[in-house]
Design a protein that fits this description.
Blueprint lengths: L2 H12 L6 H15 L4 H17 L5 H22 L4 H8 L40
Length: 135
């Protein structure tokens, strides 16, 4: 088992009962949406189910349920890494609890082609996404 996959799974599910759960869940779903888009909805519903299992587990079964959920997501993350090694850096940041995205809105797809021509002292501002101009 890749230590990054194991660490991400542990960090992800340690966030379940905290304020960071929604950010963690959204970050994992966004990563899947970028990497394996056809699985993103399933991953999201499975994360919701995993959360529900952890929260509603009877006290005498909580440890076992936690271990099983953790093992399932370690395996899923390991399979993602095997198929898409390019996500290892992003997963490493997840393992450190850095759920914020630095890769833009995960719903954006496609490509952008732009061209512009400037004359005199005009200014041209182009962006394929958000554009913030100050000053």
């Amino acid at each position: 088992m890749d230590p990054v996959a194991a660490s991400v799974a542990a960090t992800l599910f340690s966030a379940v009962a905290t304020d960071s759960w929604e950010a963690a869940k959204s970050a994992v779903v966004a990563l899947w949406r970028r990497t394996v888009p056809e699985q993103a909805e399933l991953v999201e519903s499975d994360l919701v189910l995993a959360e529900r299992r952890l929260v509603t587990a009877r006290p005498e079964q909580a440890a076992l349920v936690g271990d099983l959920v953790l093992a399932e997501w370690q395996a899923r993350l390991q399979l993602l890494l095997l198929a898409h090694p390019e996500v290892s850096g992003r997963l490493a940041r997840f393992a450190d609890g850095e759920w914020g995205g630095d890769e833009g809105d995960s719903r954006r797809t496609g490509s952008v082609s732009m061209s512009a021509r400037s004359a005199d002292s005009s200014k041209i501002f182009q962006a394929g996404g958000d554009l913030h101009v100050h000053g």
